[in-house]
């Protein structure tokens, strides 16, 4: 039997756990492009598939392609995995996710989901404790985020914590920690194509590095507008200030700033590979610090 954690006990699954959970949520399947990783989710309930289709728009693919990675979605058979804590009364912890990557196999889990993915076999399993609705799609998305981040790095790309705006056919990426202004930048870019305000995929194209929207998003709640890739013009580390100006950065500092905005891979032995890819990016694309006043005036500098 699978142990059911009490309120006070966390459950940390291992690979053996995933061999024991086999009850699928339903019979539906859905294909999607998860930040460059073509994946097919199997075992979805009909309402699960409808919810994901509505949320991910142009990133949804017809099921059935044999070339896609396959992820089986099952019932967790437990009430949860990690237990949320309060840093202080009324102040919850920052979202917590545990992950382990060894021998091509990734195990990742948080409060209401646990999943594994085998990059060599291109197959995985996602066990969900959340019933439906928002908790369900958040569980799916958080699993796919971490799987896709490692997949992108393996292919020489980066999943960057950034917002992206396309102006005059080129992509400008604005990165930094939460609260630095990534969503604000998109709000001051009316008429431009918004790639997202949370995560952007950077990959190598035929003519150099390019930026792509991903299905995952933060406060920008509308469905993604495009799944196309655009030439990468520059990256800007956002700093809120009393005036607008650009600050040149030495390569070492630019790399440090960017590495701090690479979620998931830095915590699972991906630092060396990430530094290699980020170094190549810094040699070919301009990276500056953008001081801005939370107004659209910064576009005079950027454009």
The overall pLDDT average reads 90
DSSP strand tally:
18
Shape: globular
Strand line-up in the sheet with most strands = 3-1-2-4-10-9-8-7
Count of DSSP-assigned helices: 7
- What string gives the helices and strands in order? HEEHEEEEEEEEHEEHEEEEEHHEH
Radius of gyration: 20 Å
The fraction of residues assigned to DSSP E strands is 25-35%
How would a textbook summarize the main sheet? 8 strands, mixed
Question: What class do helices, strands and sheet pairing give?
Answer: alpha+beta
Low-confidence stretches: none
Termini, distance in Å? 60 Å
> Helicity, in percent?
10-25%
Q: Explain this structure to me?
A:
With 303 residues, the protein is α+β, with helices and mostly antiparallel strands. The protein is built from seven helices and 18 strands. α5 crosses α6. The longest helix is centred in the middle third of the chain and has 21 residues, at 134-154. The protein has an eight-stranded mixed beta sheet. It has a five-stranded mixed barrel with strand order 11-12-16-15-14.
Name its key features.
globular; eight-stranded mixed β-sheet; 7 helices; about 300 residues; single chain; alpha+beta; five-stranded mixed barrel
Structure at a glance:
The chain is built from seven helices and 18 strands. With 303 residues, the protein is an alpha+beta fold.
Please render the helix and strand layout as text.
Layout: H1 15-20, E1 28-34, E2 37-44, H2 46-56, E3 60-61, E4 69-75, E5 86-88, E6 91-92, E7 98-102, E8 105-109, E9 113-118, E10 123-128, H3 134-154, E11 158-167, E12 170-175, H4 182-187, E13 193-196, E14 199-205, E15 208-212, E16 229-240, E17 245-248, H5 251-259, H6 271-284, E18 286-292, H7 298-302
Parallel strand pairs: 2-4, 4-10, 12-16, 16-18
Antiparallel strand pairs: 1-2, 1-3, 5-6, 7-8, 8-9, 9-10, 11-12, 11-13, 11-14, 14-15, 15-16, 17-18
Helix pairs in contact: 5-6
